[in-house]
Amino acid sequence: MSLSNSLVQQDLSSHIHPFTNLARHKEVGPTVIEKGDGVYVIDNNGRSYIEAMSGLWSVALGFSEDRLVKAATQQMETLPYYHSFTHKTHAPAIKLAAKLAELAPGDLNHVHFTNSGSEANDTVIKLVWYMNNALGRPQKKKFLARQQGYHGSTIASASLTGLPRSHRDFDLPAIPVRHLTAPYFYRFGLSGETEAEFVERLAQELETVIDEEGPETIAAFIGEPVIAAGGVIPAPEGYWQRVEAICRQHDIVLIADEIITAFGRLGTMFGCQYYGFQPDIMVLSKQLTSSYQPLAAIVISDAISEVLTENSGRIGSFAHGFTTTGHPVATAVALENLNIIEERQLVDHAKVVGARLQAGLNGLASHPLVGDVRTVGLMGGVELVADKETRRMFDPRGALGGYIFRQAHEHGLIVRNIYDTIAFCPPLIISEKHVSTVIDAFAGTLDDAA
Ligand code: PLP
Fold it and tell me: What cofactors are annotated for this protein (predicted)?
């Protein structure tokens, strides 16, 4: 048996894949990715694919950035592990916290690390609860999130997630949360309604839910500046300003889950800067290390940090953290990753190549299978429909999207299907020429399906 066949067999017999139809996987088997090269990945049959999803929306610098390898190696050789419990720490974690505090807008000046985005959002829930207990308002604990939002897979973060498949058969949500309508104008705008009226209707819904629950019971609102894994849904103009104002009015903590939008994805350092709002907490991961190492960071405001510190002074240890919180290798890689993003001016570059991606995807809007093209910065979603007029879907389970996802491989392209929306989120380093390669390969894939 060849090595590749034996790897496939081992995968099928021993490896439970995340976010995968496990029964179907037994039939189709794995694609084993062996190597990375810039914006390309190469499988174990030597086939190369342009990676138009940056892995999982995350590999900003592409798949072969030597400086990140060197940063990791150097840190491994110097101090491969230490922690930050009980007053100990190490230089990479300190420097990265300072760097993120410097980059983050407004008074977001305090940083706590976790290993993954899900852990970060779980941690945020605990921080907010801890804060409200410290402030003597133990009843202010509920969360507001959105349908279609994605915030993670752990029990609490999956509860914030607004996707039925993340809840069904997992007995979730497990924390008090209300999911509001996603700002998804193409699907949820009413006939004859303008986008501005739609935003106003969503703002009214938010007010109504706060009123029903009682503002004294609502702790926080969490949202991705652009809903990504739930279908690439950029916020309509004015949406975030309305949400921000309503949160301020009712003393509700505003949390921007920037796990995908931070570090240049929208052509600004952070997504909240693109939309012009100021969160009280920002959650970061993915492009923070280009996902060369697992790491997430929570950046919190001066006011929230003060409450945490004061309360801890009263009751003792702030009893939360993980063995590998702020891991030295991960934080060293993140520092180098941010240096490179700044040195190569990749935030501005994302704007330029993003315009090219947007033009390319919008150029496919007249294709018979395309219902809606949604783009912002260097990301896009193309929603496929059976009927352009009525916007009827092919199949609510996304069979066509699944077909396109697989067929794209034949064109040397990796995209992702979110039901029948095809997502694009290429590495920040992508060139205009490679954006054209992505668009041409996708157009060819669409024609196969038409
Ligand atoms: N929040 C958002 C917006 C995400 O996109 C993701 C992952 O895709 C998460 C949270 C969860 O992060 P992780 O997969 O690192 O747990």
Answer: pyridoxal 5'-phosphate
Rounded mean pLDDT, 111-137: 97
**Cα 373 to Cα 397: distance, rounded to the nearest angstrom:** 20
Count the neighbouring beta carbons within 10 Å of the beta carbon of residue 201: 15
Dihedral angle over CA of 78, 83, 86, 91, nearest 10: 40
Q: How many angstroms is it from 118 CA to the middle of ligand 1?
A: 6
Over residues 122-129, the mean pLDDT reads 98
Interval 398-417: pLDDT, tens: 888 999 999 999 999 999 99
Q: What is the tens place of the pLDDT at every residue in 231-242?
A: 999 999 999 999
Quote the ligand 1 centre to 50 CA distance (angstroms). 23
Beta bridge partners of 369: none
Distance 150 CA to ligand 1 centre (A): 7
Q: Which atom of ligand 1 is nearest to the CA of 261?
A: 3
Report which ligand 1 atom has the smallest distance to the Cα of 119. Answer: 16
Element (H, E) at 328: helix 328-343
* ipTM rounded to 2 decimals: 0.99
Q: How far apart are the first and last CA of the chain?
A: 39
**Residues lining ligand 1, CB < 6 A?**
56, 116-118, 121, 150-153, 224, 228-229, 257, 259-260, 285
Pocket test for ligand 1, best of 151, 153, 160 (most atoms within 8 A of CB): 151
- Please name each of the domains of the chain with its CATH number: 31-64+345-449 (3.90.1150.10), 69-343 (3.40.640.10)
Q: Which residues pair with 41 in a beta bridge?
A: 36, 49
Tell me the best of 285, 292, 416 to mutate to test the pocket of ligand 1, counting ligand atoms within 8 Å of each CB and taking the most: 285
For residues 411 and 448, give the distance between their C-alpha atoms in angstroms, rounded to a whole number: 10
- Supply the pTM of this predicted model: 0.97
Provide the sign of the torsion angle of the four alpha carbons 41, 45, 46, 49, taken in this order: negative
